[in-house]
């Protein structure tokens, strides 16, 4: 555990310390040593104002992709996973086989076919080129499916049907509350995956106004090479610190749902 914490925290410490340095002190001091002056707040202000405030646009784009793409993926995975777990229909095993196959295929292998398909539809260099692929989460669907099998008793569903509740009402009023820890897990996986998505936006987008933070920061980093290069490593590092803050907040706010799920049913009343 100590080695794992060291491996995890040292890069984070380097990132936080480096964000407090100016461009000059960043290149002239050790990675884990503070510079001569504390420039964190100046770096944050410069990050948001550099190049006409394009960083704020990239942040807004990333939030758009996460809210619509990851949010939609969570909704679809929850509904489909519950349906596959609790309803019997023809072709159910075939769906399971296709789902496992989709999980086994890496996303990078589908990037080029996806680009060609979206190019023919005229959707490249638009937000839909990022949002639509983000809506499909085979792993999230599988996770809800396996969780719903044990978390939602069939007897409870039958009791609700006997009381006259329709299937939609059962799903919204009964099932969602039982599936909440699993839904939160899928949501976090989807949010992190969409937030850190780099390769798909890189091939789908050519207009900087639609870049997410990952591609935008890489573009800033690339300015350090070539003729007439203007390194802005201090802004790249500060921007990287800003990008991890929303994810940390999301984990802190949603961890209570995992705790409630783990302890549910552990005490008889």
UniProtKB/TrEMBL annotation:
Keywords: Cell membrane, Membrane, Transmembrane, Transmembrane helix, Transport
Chief place where the protein resides: membrane
Listed InterPro entries: MetI-like (IPR000515), MetI-like_sf (IPR035906)
Membrane recorded as keyword: yes
TM stretches of this protein: 59-82, 94-116, 128-149, 170-192, 232-254
Ranges for domain ABC transmembrane type-1: 59-254
Lineage top rank: taxon: Bacteria
Listed PROSITE patterns: ABC_TM1
Localization (cell): Cell membrane
Membrane topology reported for the UniProt record: Multi-pass membrane protein
Protein name: Carbohydrate ABC transporter permease
């Amino acid at each position: 555990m100590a080695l794992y914490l060291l491996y995890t925290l040292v890069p984070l410490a380097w990132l936080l310390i480096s964000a407090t340095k100016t461009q000059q002190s960043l290149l002239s001091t050790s990675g884990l040593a503070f510079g001569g002056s504390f420039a964190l707040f100046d770096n944050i202000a410069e990050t948001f104002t550099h190049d006409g405030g394009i960083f704020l646009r990239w942040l807004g784009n990333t939030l758009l992709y996460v809210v619509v793409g990851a949010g939609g993926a969570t909704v679809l995975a929850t509904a489909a996973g519950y349906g596959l777990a609790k309803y019997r229909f023809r072709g159910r095993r075939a769906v399971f086989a296709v789902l496992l196959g989709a999980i086994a295929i890496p996303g990078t292998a589908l990037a080029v076919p996806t680009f060609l398909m979206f190019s023919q539809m005229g959707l490249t260099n638009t937000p839909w080129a990022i949002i639509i692929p983000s809506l499909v989460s085979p792993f999230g669907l599988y996770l809800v499916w396996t969780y719903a099998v044990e978390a939602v008793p069939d007897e409870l569903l039958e009791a609700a049907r006997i009381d006259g509740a329709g299937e939609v009402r059962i799903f919204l009023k009964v099932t969602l509350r039982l599936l909440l820890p699993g839904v939160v897990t899928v949501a976090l996986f989807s949010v992190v995956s969409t937030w850190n998505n780099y390769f798909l936006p890189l091939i789908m987008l050519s207009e900087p106004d639609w870049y997410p933070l990952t591609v935008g920061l890489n573009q800033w980093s690339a300015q350090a090479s070539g003729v007439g290069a203007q390194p802005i490593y201090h802004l790249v590092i500060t921007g990287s610190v800003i990008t991890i803050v929303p994810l940390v907040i999301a984990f802190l706010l949603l961890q209570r749902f995992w705790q409630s799920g783990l302890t549910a049913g552990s005490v008889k009343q």
